[in-house]
Write a structure and sequence with these properties.
Blueprint lengths: L4 H7 L9 H16 L28 H5 L5 E2 L2 E2 L8
Antiparallel strand pairs: 1-2
Length: about 90
């Protein structure tokens, strides 16, 4: 399995030195091999307990939106703005 650590580091905005690349490649290959050996629990062979979801209840906060937004490095129309992380 070929793992491109430089591309992964770029997508994750990680600064990995050239000296560390071989170690990360080896570690990622070990992780991929371990995951590929996990049993397949899909289909009828696995009967799990369904996850119980809590109700989504809107509650008033003691902190105003303006107070929260003053800590945001950037906001757009009253919402937090973050850098794009997905390439198109």
């Amino acid at each position: 399995m070929d793992i491109n650590v430089r591309k992964i580091a770029e997508l994750a905005s990680l600064d990995i030195s050239d000296d560390d690349i071989p170690r990360f490649e080896r570690d990622m290959k070990d992780i991929a091999a371990m995951v590929s050996e996990l049993p397949d629990l899909g289909g009828e062979s696995f009967i799990g307990m369904p996850m119980e979801l809590r109700s989504d209840i809107v509650e008033d906060s003691a902190v105003s939106r303006e107070e929260l937004m003053k800590n945001a490095p950037e906001s757009v129309k009253g919402c937090f703005a973050v850098p794009r992380t997905v390439e198109y």
